[in-house]
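*** Fold description ***
***
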Amino acid sequence: MSEATELSDSTSTTRWSHRVTTPLREFLRTEAGSAGVLVAAIVAALLWANLADGSYESFWETPVSLRFGGEGIELGLREWVNSGLMTLFFLVVGLEARREFDLGDLRDRRRFVLPALAGAAGMVLPIGIFLAFNHGGPGAAGWGAAMSTDTALALGLLALVGRNVPVQARLFLVTVSVVDDVVALIVIAVAYSEEFHLMPLLLAAAVYGFTLLLVRAGVRSGFIYLPFCLVIWGATLQSGVDPVVSGLAIGLAAAAYTPARGELEQASDLFRSFREQPTAELARFARIGVLRSLSPNDRLTRTWSGVSSYLIVPLFGLANAGIVIHGDFLGQALMSSVTVGIFLAYVVGKPIAITGVSALVTRLSGGRIRPGAGWASVLGTGTIAGMGFTVSFLIANLALEEPQLSEAKLGLLLGIVASSVVTWAVFFVTSRLPKPRKAVALLGDVDELTDLIPEVDPDRDHVRGPAEASVTLVEYGDFQCPYCGRAEPTVRELMTDDDLRYVWRHLPLTDVHPQAQLAAQAAEAAGLQGQFWEMHDLLIDRQEHLRIADLIAYAGELGLDQDRFHADMMQPICKDHITADLESADLSGVSGTPTFFINGRRHYGAYDVATLKEAIRVARVRAKIAAKRR
């Protein structure tokens, strides 16, 4: 067993290999993993409704009230789930939308145009198909139930039926769904609010505006915002607008950004004070300092994403998916215009709209605006988008009465099954294509956004490997960082690839590694005598011995002129190179080590051998596609 494999099996390295994640990748994993729980909840609801002799409806219609003095709110148990807990679900949706705009591909606003149009068309065409079957009929009011994709369920089933689907396809689905969810919430607020009262809505808007001022003023304590959020929810409920809208609005207000190095250093200082004098007060300051270094979006996402995906959405499924299925109902429902309309709206309308509009925009723009994924991925995104659940059931409950309500739910459930089968077929056929065509079909040929600033300069950067390599791996590292030491065997194994070049940039974290700066200067001084990489390897291997005497001894071990080495260490030329690397780390949003970039794109997630090899493989394929296009 190799050293890298042994490391990946250890407890410490398990923690190490998963410590660097992006909220979006975490969101994708959470949503995909929760799909199984949601499916189980749907099955449980169906069994409960059909085997428990009416107890399903009686339980979820149980009234529950909250009262303060003479005032209060009374809702049925199902309404508390649909209008109360689901507010937190839409909070997570809003957080994801804001995160994509601040940190994701949508920070290039031009990349929002195509998925926005595809998402809008993916709602309009299904509504048109539904109304073609139901216009003027008793189910026409349920048109809103035919438009919205369930992101969590779609991502989860995409992971199951479309194995090895590139992350670009999932990101395209998320981007389309952001538009989908925002428009759906507007539809709920405008079209499915019963008794509209202006004053409570104005109160909600005023309090929301005040919270935005608090955000702008830099107030970060969640306890300060909590009462304002509760007032927004309650006022929205009293206005007659479905209060789940408030969750989306609050989520969109939470900015997303990577932790600043200065704030992390301040957090380290606070922890160091607590370490020297472990009092309750200093412990509180240290905790606040660590939390303040994270963006509000990150803190809220990590708090509510798992709760939303693994508890709230499955509970919503349990409360709403139960329909009584018997022979008479099934025969009638399968021929019902509501069931057929919703089924075709999702299974036919969604993929035609999303794929067709994407192709049309690409053609009309001459290819300047095109999907961030290949056309097979776009088609697979369109087919898997043909499943409505969360918002669709929410609207169906607001708009329809029995038997149309049960018919709509049946159409939605059948659509989930059919969309999964069609998506599997799309990716199965794609997998049979020749490798070059399959790569383009899945990944596409759009240029990826570059996260690395500035790009690699062989005349300035320390580069290992062939200059003509198609893939460049950049590491921001700290010679005293134990995680960099654990990553080094992985890097050395990767360097056996003769089509890979490797670049080291300094990021000494002096607040936690006091000897890191001198070690970086030692590497630069060795570089002035032509042995940067030899010194680099020694420093990484001997991280626990980086005192000045150790560094000079290493110079002698490498056969360097020790007097010159010691003098060069203190020269501006060495310090300036490190300062330039620190500036590039700040520009690239890097605050911790090790951080990797592959062909200019930041690598998120684990950095074990298998994960990095796969990321390098995908980067190489994309580089070949780009070379052919040029």
Observations:
- Confidence is low (pLDDT under 50) at residues 1-24.
- The first helix runs from residue 3 to 9.
- The beta strands are 63-68, 71-76, 462-464, 471-477, 500-506, 595-598, 601-602.
- The longest strand covers residues 471-477.
